[in-house]
Amino acid sequence: MGVYYVLSEEDIPEGGHAVVNIEGREIGIYRINGEYHAILNYCPHQGAPICAGLVSGTTLPSEVYDYEYGRAGEIVRCPWHGWEFDLQTGKSLFSDRIRVKKYKVEVHEGKVGVVMGRG
Amino acid sequence: MDDMKIIDVDVHNEQDDRALLPYLQEPWRSRVAASGIGYAGSGYYSPIGVMKKDSIPPGGGKAGSDPDYMIKQLIEGYNLDYAVLTGVVYNISSTHDPDYAAAICSAYNDYLIAEWLGKHKAFKGAMVVATQDPLLAAREIDRIGGHPDIVEVMISSAARSPLGQRYYHPIYEATERKGLPVAIHPGAEGGGSSTAPTAAGYPTRYIEWHTCLSQMFMAHLVSMVCEGVFVKYPSLKVVLVEGGVAWLPALMWRLDKNYKALRSTVPWLTRMPSEYIRDHCYLSTQPIEEPDNPQHLIDLFNMIDAENMLLYSSDYPHWDFDSPSHILRGLKPEARRKIFYENAKQLYRLD
């Protein structure tokens, strides 16, 4: 377990992300509403570089023929097969069991750190 | 995985419409120069788009349009021994003018040979023919089919009627004469002059359209068996590309059951219909069905001896790409070797 301070806060604009390499792992750090979320750049389905996927909102569960758009900027969609993942939790939008690996992020004196190892 | 030999039987090279201009005769050249090819697509919208998002060449252009990038990302990236380039031009078969459709296919075939097949030893080509006029298609097969790097004849599953009917037989006659398999690929279902994309008509959304593509293959396959295509052309092989796999056992059982009662309507079939399917047909794997329990798919494979009928395909660079290192991992090594390499090697006579 360790915190890897890999970026400064100004490296990631609001709504943007950056992909960093920490101990051989590619990790995407996303900034959403001032908070940071880190995920492994590896889709649990077939291993696609998920951080190349579009970040957007999506249609929320709704009544038949209603379309309620929400979660703007919080959903990443795999660039290969289109699976949607919640950047806040890492979970796919179709199953709690299917998730992209998430890492804790710590911000200290303007530096953004990814917590690796257990935890 | 690292030392596994792989043949990918469905790789979509693309090109700008204008790339075909040097290979087109008038009056078609002026038409394409002014208006593009003008496919009659299905019209269904997908939020994901058709292309795998990381396959756009660094120098720009359409995904799949840069041979060098395809070599780097796909051939070298996955260590493929061969890739069958299937293009997208088979989709021309849903348009209305048979002469135009045939001209586009001829131009594409010449383009494919001139600008792709020599670029890498892994590249093999599927020539395309349009189904609107099977006699023109047969002439094109005779013109191109003998090229050493052409390994099959591709037609569209979006058609005006079931593909086993006698109207289409000149295509199969020519294909068999050239010793090539005929491959059938979806894409334009419901567009232009093709039939409705599902047996029930036009669904509302892409998710429905895409799921029901298997129906098209079921109907074409039953037609080909019952119309006696494999009796008339006993050495013909058919590759059902991108139509799914898991429906096949049920179709074989249902057709065999019906044959027991209704044999007299197809008296040219002297064996169980499923035997013709086993002897003459191959299915490409992508998009492979993915049940929650992977063993269920393996059980299903065992029901139909699928390891001798399946050919690995990635569908690169399309959105539903199947990576060779991530699918069918639960199969026995012997079955994997057949599906990823041996079956295609034998079918396409590759070294």
TrEMBL record, chain A:
GO MF annotation, one: monooxygenase activity
Record key words, sorted: 2Fe-2S, Iron, Iron-sulfur, Metal-binding
InterPro entries in UniProt: Rieske_2Fe-2S, Rieske_2Fe-2S_sf
Domain Rieske stretches: 4-114
Gene3D superfamilies, sorted: Rieske [2Fe-2S] iron-sulphur domain
Keyword Iron set for record: yes
PROSITE patterns reported in the protein's UniProt record: RIESKE
Pfam families linked to this entry: Rieske
PANTHER family in the cross-refs: 3-PHENYLPROPIONATE_CINNAMIC ACID DIOXYGENASE FERREDOXIN SUBUNIT (PTHR21496:SF23), FERREDOXIN-RELATED (PTHR21496)
Identification of the protein by name: 2Fe-2S ferredoxin
Species, as recorded: Paenibacillus solani
UniProtKB/TrEMBL annotation, chain B:
Residue span(s) of domain Amidohydrolase-related: 93-350
Keyword Hydrolase attributed: yes
Keywords of this entry: Hydrolase, Lyase
Annotated Pfam families: Amidohydro_2
SUPFAM superfamilies the UniProt entry points to: Metallo-dependent hydrolases
One GO location term (cellular component): cytoplasm
InterPro entries with a match to the protein in the record: ACMSD, Amidohydro-rel, Metal_Hydrolase
GO BP field: secondary metabolic process
Gene Ontology terms, MF aspect: carboxy-lyase activity; hydrolase activity
Protein name: Amidohydrolase
Organism: Paenibacillus solani
